[in-house]
Amino acid sequence: MAKQKFENIPLLAEVEAPLFHEGDVVVLNSIKDECLPSDNLGKYHIHILCNSGKVQFVMTDRIFSIVKGDFAVWTIDAVITEMLYSPDFDADILLVSRNFLLENNPQSTWATKGYLYIKENPVFSLSETDFKILLSDFVRFKEQLARTNHIFRREILGRLMQIFLYDLWDVYASEINRHRSLNSNTANLFSRFLDLVRLKNSESREVAYYADKLCVTPKYLSEVVRKASGKPASYWINGYTLQEIIAMLKRQDMTVSEIAVRMNFYNQSHFSRFVKNMLGVSPTEYRANLENKEI
């Protein structure tokens, strides 16, 4: 395949807008801001658009390289080591906090497909068109971050996050559909498990419940889920449960007690412990934080 040319694409660093560091969303340029993507490992989900140069790194005992025209994703829990940057490395970097991505991640099978694909393929080459699409998403984030007085700033950033994710999933859709882990009997059961969790997470958070619905043993289901995703079944159950809870906490017409009942927790204390374990704050504190950010 002929190498794509990117000479005529304007760099994000050239966009005339002041730089604002949002707690949940940060847009940087490695040269202008004198930073590297690896500066924020373990703090954010890191999205890298490479304008020039090269970075080599190791993930899951494999060596990867990011070069001009590539896009890379380093998830917050990824173990990235042995980073080597060329002197001319230049990249635009989008940092997204764990909670902000969780709050604004569209509930779609593509979210799971994307996670599984990125887990094994953190770097992929872009066509010139796709590079422009993702760069325009970065630019929109930067422009919105500059609008500090907009009363719906956080809500707009959330919608921009969803647009970015849909654009990203579209970019590598063909690769995802060809991905071997999604074309096996194991993946079939895993997919059915996720569909069931999306529908029934308010009824139960026990692996045995889902195993019974799928007519397999809890042990077998746990083995299949870990083989397909690298995560235990409880990770996906708790993750989808948390998405539902976050959506309800954003609503003003439901009390914390009502949400606990709706999500089938034993009591409000049990519910609060679950939320604090997942988000680091209690449901009441999380809701208060949302209100403070809207002021």
What secondary-structure arrangement, pairings included, does this model have?
Blueprint: E1 25-29, E2 45-52, E3 54-59, E4 62-67, E5 70-74, E6 80-85, E7 90-96, H1 98-104, H2 109-120, E8 123-125, H3 128-146, H4 153-171, H5 173-178, H6 185-200, H7 207-213, H8 218-229, H9 233-249, H10 256-262, H11 268-279, H12 283-294
Antiparallel strand pairs: 1-7, 2-5, 2-7, 3-4, 3-6, 5-8
Summarize the structure in words:
Helix 3 runs antiparallel to helix 4 and helix 10 crosses helix 11. The chain has a five-stranded antiparallel sheet with strand order 1-7-2-5-8. Strands 4-3-6 form a three-stranded antiparallel sheet, with no helix packed on it. The N terminus is likely disordered. The protein is an alpha+beta fold. The protein folds into two domains: 165 residues, Regulatory protein AraC (Jelly Rolls), CATH 2.60.120; 111 residues, Homeodomain-like (Arc Repressor Mutant, subunit A), CATH 1.10.10.60. The protein is globular and about 55 Å long. It is built from twelve helices and eight strands.
Put the structure in a nutshell:
With about 300 residues, the protein is of the alpha+beta class.
Determine Rg (CA atoms, Å).
20 Å
Q: What is the straight-line distance between the termini?
A: 51 Å
CATH class descriptor of the largest domain = Mainly Beta
What fraction of the residues are assigned to beta strands by DSSP? 15-25%
Q: Would you count the extended β strands for me?
A: 8
CATH topology of the largest domain: Jelly Rolls
Main sheet properties? 5 strands, antiparallel
When the domains are counted, the total is 2
Q: Globular, elongated, flat, extended or rod-shaped: what is the shape?
A: globular
Summed up, the helix count is: 12
Average pLDDT rating: 83
Give the helices and strands as they follow along the chain: EEEEEEEHHEHHHHHHHHHH
